[in-house]
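Quick one, T. Sequence first:
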Amino acid sequence: MTVEPAPLSALLLNCTLSPSPAGSSTDVLGRQVLAALAEHGVTGSQVRVVDHDVRPGVELDMGEGDEWPAIRRQVMDADILVLATPTWLGQHSSVAQRVFERLDAELSETDDEGRLLTFGKVALVVVVGNEDGAHHITAVAYQALNDVGFTIPAQGVTYWNGEAMHTVDYKDLEETPEATASATATMAANAAHLARLLRRDGYPAV
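Structure tokens:
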């Protein structure tokens, strides 16, 4: 009897500054990404990081009360990590920066053959904001995520920047802009394809 492989899974870390249940443009675009991944057989879930006590630091566990270890377990259980951040002053959010800093600890975590535990995982980036900054944020996020072992697929980002000097948010739009929808679809297809390749034939031992 042939055993079907487990479906791919994705975890979206929503790095909005707005605690639940407040509306969030990052949540809206992030959910669209999870829906696009689902079209390729990827199950998805979301964590709104600001709802949790993620302590500052660069260790796996920063002690009593730190909720990062539980979030990290979800990251490590997923095949695809989606890092979603709003744009503030042209930069990624402070919550996203906290996530990058906590992921730094993965540089010390390896398997029996010397590979980082993240080597078999794909990472995607989602950026949203009513100001410029998506390209800069994407560059920073790509470097951070790749440096700690994640693999970025071709066109592994989707974003929306509102018109300069205006106050319209993504969550206020009546329909998804065609360019953003197209980027989301391409990103999801490439991510699922790459994640399956990595699951089947991962990186060689060091």
